Sequence to fold (172 residues):
Amino acid sequence: MSNILLIDAETKTKNLLIKCLETAGVEVIITENCLVNVQLADQKLSTTTESKKLNRQKSIFPSIPRLCKVFEFIELNYHQSIRLKEVAQAVGYSSAYLTDLVRRLTGKTVNNWIIERRIVEASSLLLETNNSVDEIALKVGYQNINHFYCQFRDYYKNTPRAWRESQRCKVA
Fold:
């Protein structure tokens, strides 16, 4: 889904744009104030095989059918405070069974997967934005900034700020 911002657009201009988009095969989802949300007709909710493949390629999660719902729940909720108990409830398993199953099939715990997903997103945001490290930590689901620093350092062997600088130097 994409957004188009119309600044000082008259209703007539806005309606013409919407009509052109619809003619081009783009579905207009919502129009509010100056914001028009659009989506290509063939990209609805990752239903096409191609978009599913793209999503899988970008995912950090292994393709294990029995854990698909677990990873889907983590993907949809990692930016919030989630715990093993909530993941287990969402997929219909007890916490103990889910812990054993995930560790057996992946070698990692559910908590490890949540942390890894948050750290991967944080590293993306560190590279792609100029947001502060604290803002990024909050955005990816950490309520305790120090906890984020510790986990980031464990994962990358560097502080978030120093990691950002070193990665940006490599690109430049």
Remarks:
- DSSP finds nine helices and three strands in the chain.
- The first strand starts at residue 2 and ends at 5.
